[in-house]
């Protein structure tokens, strides 16, 4: 537990995954009322669409580094594995220098944007993630849970094919042959969030892609995503990311210019 003059930093719901590594100092990270002690060597694999808070004493700041990443299927599409398929949320390594240098190497290679450098970065990151999984083996998943995961993955793929498609939890549950209540319960057990919040995240993921890859204005993007009006789109985007979509686009353009 952190003591002294405490400050905190809240991570907004993540739009991807984040491998977060502490190489010095002490802090506390809180996720869904669960507390993790952050000491040198701690590795946190922060989850998609989850919110975290770090609490720390400025007199003993945490030295840390991190990389953002996504999981891709064989076709190169972004996917969100079920919880049992992810690296452990919390783990710790004694080889602090190696882990630090590996993550720094990944970050440096990604900045170059060259194809060979990105391939090399993927290899380093994949090796580190596999090492975390191997060092923290999980119990076999029961067959019924595997079936639920398969069916829900199909429903997520259906939503992802066209995020502008109007949907409701009841309608998606019916498509997967669930009742709405049971679907919500199973979905939350697997993905750690509600179907509504997850599906909103998929739609806003698409919004981020349109903001960064096209010159469409806010009204056009809202229409493209099936929003009834641009104000609701902007409000939902700001609730999710902590800033208006126009500000998000400006920040991305600024990052591109500084590369």
Gap from first CA to last CA: 38 Å
State the CATH topology of the largest domain: Jelly Rolls
Order of helices and strands: EEEEEEEEEEHHHHHHHHH
User: In terms of structural class, how would the helical and strand content be classed?
Assistant: alpha+beta
The chain-level mean pLDDT equals 83
* Integer tally of domains: 2
User: What about the largest sheet?
Assistant: 4 strands, antiparallel
**Tally of helical segments:** 9
- Low-confidence residue ranges: 255-259
The CATH class of the largest domain: Mainly Beta
Helix content: 40-55%
Q: Based on the coordinates given, report the CATH architecture of the largest domain.
A: Sandwich
The total count of strands amounts to 10
Overall geometry comes to globular
**Beta-strand percent range:** 15-25%
Provide structural commentary.
- The chain is of the alpha+beta class.
- It has helices at residues 96-112, 115-135, 143-161, 169-175, 180-191, 195-213, 218-224, 230-241, 245-258; strands spanning 7-11, 17-24, 27-31, 34-38, 42-46, 52-56, 63-69, 71-72, 78-79, 90-92.
- It has a four-stranded antiparallel sheet, with no helix packed on it. It has a four-stranded antiparallel sheet with strand order 7-2-5-10, with helices on one face. Strands 8-9 form a two-stranded antiparallel ribbon.
- Strand 8 and strand 9 form a beta hairpin.
- Helix 4 packs across helix 5.
- The two termini are 38 Å apart.
């Amino acid at each position: 537990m952190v003591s002294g003059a405490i400050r905190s930093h809240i991570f907004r719901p993540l739009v991807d995954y984040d491998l977060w590594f502490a190489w010095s100092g002490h802090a506390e990270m809180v996720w869904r009322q669960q507390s993790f002690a952050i000491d040198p060597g701690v590795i946190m694999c922060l989850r998609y669409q989850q919110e975290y808070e770090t609490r720390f004493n400025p007199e003993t700041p945490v030295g840390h580094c991190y990389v953002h990443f996504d999981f891709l299927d064989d076709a190169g599409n972004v996917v969100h594995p079920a919880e049992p398929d992810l690296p452990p949320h919390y783990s710790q390594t004694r080889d602090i220098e190696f882990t630090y240098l590996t993550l720094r190497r990944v970050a440096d290679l990604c900045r170059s944007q060259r194809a060979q450098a990105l391939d090399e970065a993927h290899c380093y990151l994949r090796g580190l993630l596999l090492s975390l999984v191997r060092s923290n083996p999980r119990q076999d998943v029961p067959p019924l849970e595997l079936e639920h995961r398969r069916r829900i993955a199909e429903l997520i793929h259906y939503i992802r094919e066209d995020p502008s498609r109007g949907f409701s939890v009841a309608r998606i549950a019916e498509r997967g042959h669930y009742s709405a209540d049971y679907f919500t319960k199973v979905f939350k057990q697997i993905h750690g969030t509600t179907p509504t919040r997850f599906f909103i995240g998929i739609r806003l993921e698409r919004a981020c892609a349109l903001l960064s890859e096209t010159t469409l204005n806010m009204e056009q993007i809202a229409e493209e995503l099936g929003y009834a009006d641009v104000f609701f789109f902007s409000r939902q985007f700001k609730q999710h990311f902590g800033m208006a979509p126009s500000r998000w686009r400006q920040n991305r353009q600024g990052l591109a210019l500084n590369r």
